[in-house]
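Worked example
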Amino acid sequence: MSAHPIPPEGDIAPPPDGDTWTGLHGGPLPVEAASAWAVLPSCGAVVTFSGTARDHSVGREGVSRLEYEAYETQVVPRLDEIAAVARQRWPELGRIALLHRMGVVPITESAVVVAVSSPHRGDAFDAARFCIDTLKETVPIWKREDWSEGSSWGLEPQHITDVR
């Protein structure tokens, strides 16, 4: 049993306190809610990234289905670590949301959401970019693609690294 079970489809809510919202979810991700939650009176910038399922991939036209699986007990601790490292690099950050969807993600729906607030836009952009890039490199989540000519769990092996 997972220490951080994936919530089923339905509402997913931010934490009642604190400035970091991380998690896995089995249904549609709350993109607008994450962006709104990141707003703080002390922050003049919110950068929100939503990674959506698309209908193609490198060398793969006609992608019709994406599915994500994860090493569940490792995901939320890694997301928390990414947020902590971002806060070390950009100490003035306000709120950080790092949310990933599991299971089947229909084309055009969000598979991952990153929202970061900061007093200034430069830090918000830089921290959001760091968060999504580091998430892709360090969090044990795998994607299966079904396309017109076949299916596969990714284009090539992904080597998970430590959060830097």
The longest strand covers residues 110-118. The mean pLDDT is 88. Residues 20-146 form a domain with the Aldehyde Oxidoreductase; domain 3 fold (CATH 3.90.1170.40).
